[in-house]
Structures are given as C-alpha cells and as structure tokens.
Design a protein that fits this description.
Structural class: mainly beta
Distance between the termini: 34 Å
Number of strands: 50
Radius of gyration: 29 Å
Length: 827
C-alpha cells in the first residue's frame, strides 16, 4: 500500500506508518472502555422557503413536546438540511427560526427504544410581514479574552493595532516579550513556536522576525497564546504556541477595504493595505496586498572587561548607532469552493518581497579603564538584504456524516530566498588620533534558500454523544542551503569560504480521545514524531557531516471540572520539544569587527520540556493559573571570550537543566458603561543549572513578574479609546541579567460615514521608556549591553470599507464560523 504526494514517497515501511500503528494500539483500549455500544436514532429534515428552495443557516431546535424545553440546537446546511444524532426515546417537535421569516413548527413525533432513524416532513418557512433583507453586523470583543485553553488578543478592531506590524503587536501581548535580537519569550521563557493560521512557519529567528515585521497589523484578526497545547499540535515549542489568525471576510457579494497610514518617530513611515473579497453562491475569492516603508534608528552600547591569562584587564567601550531602512511588501490570494454541502476545497497563495538596508557607524575605545583610551577603532558597515518568499496551500475538508465525523487534508509548499551583501571598513587609531594600522576591509555575501514541504491529514470521529476521537498524520521536509563568500579587498573577487546545508524530515502521528461526564471532561492524547536530519558543513574544503535520527513520544492530558455555575478547575500536562533553529546550526563565523564575531553550533541537541498547569476560574472571568515546567538540554545563547586575542563572540550551547515556576492572575472588569478593562499579572521563577560550562558550574535563578493593564473607553458615540501599560521586572535568563522594561501606549479611533470609515490616532511608548538592557558576568565574561530602539512612534491610520458591507441575516448566525472550521489555512 502506498501514498503519493509531490516530491514525497511514503510506503508502509515509513516511520510515519509505524508511528500511527503504535499510537493506535496504545489508545484503542481506552476508546473501547469509553465507547457506548447502544445506537440511538437520528432525526433529520429540511427547510424550504415559499418558492420551495432550501433555506440555509437557519436556527433549528429539537424541543420536548411536553414542555417545549430545548434538547439540541443546530444550523441548517447550505442545502437546507439538518440532523440531530443520538436522540433518546421520547416525544419531540422541531422548531425553525430565521430573520425575515415566521417561526415554523413541526408536528409532534415519538421515538421508542425500537425506533430507527426518523425523517420529519420538510418545514416551509413563510416570509414575515415586516421583511428584514439585510442587517449591519457590529460586535465588540474585549482586547484581551481568556478562554479555557488559551488567551486571545482580539486585535481586529483595536486602536493600538493600526499601522503596526505583527511583531510590534506581539510585543504588547500578555506575557510576551521580544529581546534585542528579536527572540520571542513567553512568561520569561524562550522557545516559543509561532504559527500563522494554525501552520508552523519553520523559519529561523531572523527570518521569522522579517516575516512578522512585513505582516501588516490590519490583516490580523487575533493572536492566540496557548501555553499548553494538546497532541493535535506540533510538539515544537517548550514555552507554548503563539498562533496569529489572519482575517477572513465573511460578507457576501463584492466588498473590500483600503487602509492608508503614516507615522513618525525619529523618521517618517507609511503603510498601505488593500483587501478584496467576492462571495457568491458556493465560491469565495479573497486577496490582499500590503506595503510599508519604515526607516528607524536604534543605538547599541557595549562595554566589555577582558582579563587575560596573566590577570591584566582591558576595557572595551563601544557605541553603534544603526539606521535601518525597510521596504516590505506582502500579498495573499485564495479561494474556497463548496463542492457540495459536505465537501469544501480551497487554496491560498501568499508571500512577500522585502528589502532592508542597515548602515552602522561603530566607535570602539580600548584602554585600561572606561574613561580613557589607548587606541580606538572606527568601523563603518553597510548591509543590503533582500527577502523573498512564496507559499502555496491546498486544502480539502469532507463531512462524512451529520454526527460530526469529518476528514481534512492540507498540502503546503514554501520557498524562501534571502541574500545579504555586507561591507565592513575599519580604521585603527592611537590615543592621539594618528593611524595605528592600515585600513581593514571585509566583504561578505550570504545567499540562502529554504524549501519547506508539508502534508497532513486530520480525522474526527464522534464515538458517542460524549466521546470523541481525533487522529492525524503529518510529514514535513525542510531543506536549507547557505553560502558564505568573503573578500579582504574592495577590488578582489569574492571567494566561497563556507557552504552549509541542512535537511530535516519529520514524520508524525497523533491520537486524541475526549470524554464528557456530568461535571468532568477529560482529554488524553499521544503524539509521536520521528526526526531524521543531516547537517553538512564545508569550510575551506574541510567537510563535516552530522546525521541524527530519533523517535519521541509526547503525551498530553487535560482534565476540566465544573464545581458549580461559578467555579471551575482545570489541570493540563504536555511534553514538548524544541529543535535547534537552522541559523543556530550553521557554523559560519560572521565577523562584525576585528574584536567581535558570531557563530553557530552544528552540535546543538534538541531540548525537551514537561509542562504542568493548574487553572481556577471564578464566574467565567477571574482566572488563576499555577504552572511548572522542567527542561533538559536547554538551548541558550552563550557569550564567550578568548583572553589571548581579546576577541568576544556569541554562540548557542545546551545547558543541562531549566526549572520554571509561574503564577498568573487574569481579571476583566467594568467600572462604568463607558469604561472597562482587564488586569493580567504573571509571577515566575527561572532557574538554570549546568556543570562544566566554560570551566565553571552554573547555578542561577531569579524571581520576576510581569504586569499588564488595558483600559477601553467609549466616551462618545462613534469614539473609542485605549490605554495599555506594561511592566516587566528584572530577570535572569541563562548567563544574562535582563534589566526592567516598561512602557505605556494609547490611542483613539472614530467611526463615521455609516461606520464605513474609521480614523485612528495612536502613540506607542509615550514616555520613551522601553529599552533592552542586559549584563553578563560569568567566568571570563564581563559585559554590559544597552539598546534603545525607536519605540515612541505616533501613527495616524485611515480605513474605508466599500462594496456590500451587509451580511444576510440568515447567513450570519455562526454559519460562517462553520465554514471557517471546514477550510484550514484560509481563515
């Protein structure tokens, strides 16, 4: 038996089939214990209008004939049909309602123990005397929303999202922080997996940062923060998953929106976005294009104290103002087509083409202390970078029956082509200003290509009214190809000095079993992933090959107990993995100046984490979370120094253990009809242990906390204002001590022209306090880094919605959400 996909060949001998077989054997017995053997009948029917045509997305209720109490509810399908599965014996009636039509009731009917499936006569809906053809849909969600398994940041209508990129919005999300190198942390822990529309990005930290900075905030619907994902999700991400959900137009007819904005910090900025959508019958076509120009400045200060083998100390004081000029362009085109009421086929094409120019003017002073210098360096660097990405997704979803059994499939292909051309010119001076050495020149070109192929199948089967089985298979194939070409003269040709390739294949399968009891719901899952990778480095004709093959199992357990209407508790456990990022494995040496360089580590091992969480929720609002995680082989950035040459470098290594304890309190509140908000507080402790690290034994830890408050004001009709304040205390991460960070953002918006037009004014980091300052003092390392980015930015954004901005009332009642669930990767 064989399965074929583009460029991928899977046979029964493949590890993915073995994985799925093992999972099936492990959970089959559990499913047998829970499954109910008794089969209850299904009640089905159809809704028609006065012309005999089907009525879709109407609310259909199954009522007890005795007292009209509701037993079940559903929506009619696009073909007007409905069904209720697993109905107990008794007397019932069907009620159907939809805006613009009179209510319709069926005749009573009775089910007995011996009854088979029942089809009630078609219900005809009469037009109401006062017809409401269309209705404007307006809804308001809180900016921060806490759900049972995740925290959701609803940025779609937020004032603070206007004109900002996805990266800038992420920096404002609860518990999320972004460091000086664009590494994303959650509750102080790195190792966050970022997904877009439920799909992994498979990118290095630098490439992920580029993608997020080129994603216009106006295209984002929400950001989901999942700290303990189930087995259905990829096992990557020790501190959790951040899932960015892009907007999908739910409106009928042809419509769209145009957004233009301008901003100013140290330099001017602009952003533009055009979105179009056409939905008619079974076909929905959508597309968008975004462009932004962003010139910004950041200043980095670095002080280092280096002690050589004889005990002599040398002080390095360095300042580096960096002017970055970005031009980002991104696009998205897709379509969904309902082949039938059960089958939906869709595709999405998206990508970006970006450019970035970095100009740095670095002064390094070298002496016996920080106040006087014996010599100095002046390095001017110019880096031109280009980023191109194209990604294609094909998805199909099929509803097997009306009881909830369905299967879906996705095929994805992505290709990233990046290039960097850098030139470094260094002048050497003595204390009196005279030239110490001849000018040094270094040029390098680093083209890289990444290709990603993935495919997955998900299957859902309700085994009974309270028991559900979910299963799936997934494969991924990632290849990277990197070159480093260098020259030491502006007039000489570039020579290839390093060539690095990396190939990684992951075969995965999962099973999830969930059971609802009277007051308790339980979900148990198991995911298995078989990884096969090969890293090949060729440096000056010295070839090094590092192969790896390993099979891991990732169990998960979720227990939810509703004590009463106001009190609820939840326990969750999951095991996670973080594989090294591609750029961290690349052994290239990137020289920034004669005394500083950065390199990768091809010997990095994956890190593994066990996460435990306990949640208590009061009155569906106040939530208290206690968490603990234990991580082994922790992938951490490590600074190093060569005392003989006085050269400093940064690389990645595996620390032995990281322990994390955290407590989170979340509570929304309402002060007045025009004033509401929420409060989010997280306290945590991060501890690191590693023996034999750079000749010493590391044992460090520190308690820290994060606070975030969001205020929403509705002072006048059509106006909305937001005020957000963040504070993160000092913390320890590995060898680094991170100083406190805090900021305040504010904005106001006004809707007019029958809510088709909206203008937003916002200011980020009003008091210009957001900084990234860190220090490190371990063994021979003694450094202090100060970074100030352009964080205080004023933005003015205008949005206009055109075309048919009304939704047919009978199609609005969550039917679009059902469609959204059927089409993966297109919402």
């Amino acid at each position: 038996m064989e399965y074929y996909c583009p460029k991928i060949h899977i046979t029964m001998k493949s590890p993915i089939i073995k994985i799925y077989t093992i999972l099936l054997l492990l959970l089959t017995s559990a499913a047998t214990l829970f499954a109910q053997t008794a089969q209850s009948p299904t009640v089905s029917g159809a809704l028609l209008n006065e012309q005999g045509k089907p009525l879709d997305y109407a609310t259909v209720s199954l009522l007890k004939a005795q007292d009209s109490s509701m037993v079940k509810g559903t929506l009619s399908s696009p073909s007007g049909t409905f069904a209720f599965a697993h109905i107990k014996p008794g007397s019932y009636i069907i009620r159907a309602t939809v805006v613009g039509y009179e209510r319709s009731l069926s005749k009573p009917f009775t089910l007995t123990e011996a009854s088979s499936d029942v089809t009630v006569p078609a219900l005809k809906m009469k037009t109401a005397s006062r017809t409401l053809n269309t209705v404007n849909v307006t809804s308001s969600k809180p900016l921060i929303e806490r759900k049972i398994d995740r925290t959701v940041m609803n940025v779609e209508n937020s004032v603070l999202a206007a004109g900002n990129s996805a990266m800038e919005i992420l920096e404002r999300a609860p518990g999320v922080s972004v460091d000086k190198d664009d590494n994303i942390s959650l509750k102080g822990k790195q190792g966050v997996t970022v997904m877009i529309n439920d799909k992994l990005t498979y990118l290095s930290s630098a490439q992920l940062a580029t993608l997020l900075r080129s994603t216009d905030g106006t295209t984002i619907q929400s950001i989901e923060i999942i700290t303990n994902p189930s087995a259905k999700y990829d096992a990557a991400g020790n501190s959790g998953i951040i899932n960015i959900k892009l907007k999908k137009n739910k409106q009928t007819g042809t419509n769209g929106s145009v957004t233009v904005g301008a901003g100013y910090g140290a330099y001017g900025k602009d952003n533009e976005n055009l979105s179009l959508n056409h939905k008619e019958g079974n076909l929905n076509i959508f597309g968008s294009f975004s462009h932004n120009d962003n010139k910004r400045i950041q200043t980095i200060g670095l002080n280092r104290i280096i002690t050589d083998n004889k005990g002599n100390t040398t002080y390095f004081r360095q300042t580096s103002p960096i002017i970055q000029t970005d031009q980002n362009n991104s696009y998205r085109l897709g379509a969904d087509y309902d082949i039938s009421s059960k089958n939906t086929l869709g595709f999405v094409l998206n990508g970006y083409f970006n450019g970035e120019d970095d100009n740095t003017n670095t002064h390094t002073f070298i002496g016996q202390n920080f106040t006087s210098a014996d010599s100095s360096l002046h390095t001017v660097s110019n880096i031109h970078q280009t980023y191109h990405d194209i990604a294609f997704n094909l998805n199909d979803s099929y509803k097997i029956d009306t009881a909830g059994q369905q299967i879906s499939a996705d095929l994805d292909y992505s290709k990233f082509q990046n290039s960097s051309i850098a030139q470094y010119v260094t002048d050497f001076f003595l204390a009196n200003g005279s030239v110490q050495h001849p000018q040094a020149f270094l040029g390098n070109v680093t083209p890289s290509t990444i290709e990603i192929r993935t495919g997955k199948v998900d299957y859902t089967k309700p085994l009974s009214k309270s028991l559900k089985l979910e299963s799936g298979l997934k494969f991924s194939d990632v290849t990277t190809n990197n070159n480093l070409m260098e020259t030491l003269s502006a007039t000489s040709a570039y020579q290839t000095t390093n060539h690095f390739t990396y190939d990684e294949k992951i075969d995965a399968g999962y099973l999830n079993l969930s059971k609802d009891f009277k007051h308790i719901s339980i979900q148990a899952g198991l995911r298995a992933e078989y990884t096969s990778s090969t890293a090949t480095g060729d440096s000056l004709n010295i070839v090094q090959v590092i192969p790896r093959h390993y099979l891991n199992f990732f169990p998960s357990l979720f227990i939810n107990r509703a004590i009463n209407d106001k009190n609820e508790i939840n326990f969750s456990y999951s095991r996670r993995i973080d594989r090294p990022r591609y750029d961290n494995l690349n052994p290239f040496v990137y020289r920034l100046d004669p005394y500083t360089y950065q390199k990768g580590n091809p010997y990095l091992k994956p890190q593994y984490t066990s996460n435990f969480e306990f949640n208590y929720t009061y009155n569906k609002s106040l939530t208290v979370t206690l968490g603990y995680s234990h991580t082994t082989d922790v992938i951490t950035e490590i600074p190093g120094t060569d005392p003989a040459t006085k050269v400093s470098f940064v690389t990645e290594q595996n620390l032995q253990v990281q322990n994390s304890y955290n407590v989170n309190i979340y509570s929304p509140y309402t002060i007045a009809k025009w004033w509401e908000g929420n409060f989010n507080a997280t306290g945590f402790y991060l501890g690191f242990k590693s023996n034999g690290l750079e000749g010493g034994n590391l044992n460090r830890g520190q308690a820290a906390f994060q606070l975030r408050t969001t205020q929403t004001f509705l002072p006048f009709k059509g106006y909305k204002a937001e005020l957000t304040t963040n504070y993160q205390s000092a913390l320890t991460y590995g060898l680094f001590y991170v100083k406190p960070q805090y900021s305040t953002d504010a904005g106001i918006s006004h809707s007019f022209a029958d809510k088709k037009a909206n203008i937003k004014l916002s200011v980020s980091d009003i008091f210009k306090t957001r900084r990234n300052d860190v220090t490190s003092n371990y063994q021979s390392n003694n450094l202090d880094i100060r970074q100030q980015r352009e964080t205080r930015i004023t933005r003015l954004t205008f949005t206009y919605n055109f075309g048919n901005n009304k939704i047919k009332a009978r199609q609005h009642q969550t039917g679009a959400e059902d469609e959204k669930g059927r089409v993966k990767g297109a919402n």
